[in-house]
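#onboarding

Welcome to the new folks! Below is a worked example of what a typical request in this channel looks like: someone posts a single protein sequence, and someone else replies with the predicted structure as tokens. Don't worry about understanding the tokens yet, we'll cover that in week two.

Example request:
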Amino acid sequence: MPTLLRSDRGQTLPIYIWLTGILLFAAFAFFAFAQAASARNGAQSAADAAALAATQSARDELMEELGGAIGVDDNWLDWLDGDQFEGAGATAAAQQLAADNDSTVPGGAQRTTINGLPGFRVEIETNYTVGDSIIPGTESQRARADATAVIEPRCDFDLDADPTELITLNCDGEPVDIDPEDFDLDDLPDASVLFSVHLAE
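Example response:
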């Protein structure tokens, strides 16, 4: 009987070694996938932030142009459509936010339109890699992600309104009075009252 027990132990040892090896490989593989998922999540967060920064920069430009047009240009109400901007500072703003998230914007901020709303698409690449793992190539692989943010006008007004007279805007239920004949830049509300900036769905 003792001889039989020793024989059984000798047969099961290779099975234990084999199972342990399988478990270790699975654990390392799971860790590699977790590393990749973490890198992708970081890249997507960086892309979201960069796209929002680019579009907020365009909104700031839009507000500046709107303020300069009121009382000077009889077509100033057209600026409330939210699409009359050059977006000259969009790429720089996207690059700054990407850099804050250890990433770059190789192609710059690309102007686009989603569901009729103007905005910017940004693709980023991380400066960091996925890291060493059992999967070959991950030590040099960088994560990439893209995001798009848009400017959405929030204000309605009477289409028959005289742009040279006092006009009351309805900005999602909040009234905003603008009198072109007695206008000061301080009369403009915060940019977020006139235009919302959000990621495109």
